Amino acid sequence: MNFKGHLTSGVVVGVGIAAGAVYYGYIDGDDLQTQVAVAGTALFFALFPDLDTSSVSQRWFFRVVFCGMLVLGWTERYELATLVGIMSLLPLLDHHRGWTHWKISPLVVSLLLGATYEYWQARNAFMGEFDWANVRTLIQGHWIFLCACIVGWYTHLLLDGRFRIFPTDQDHH
Question: Which pTM value belongs to this model?
Answer without folding.
Answer: 0.77
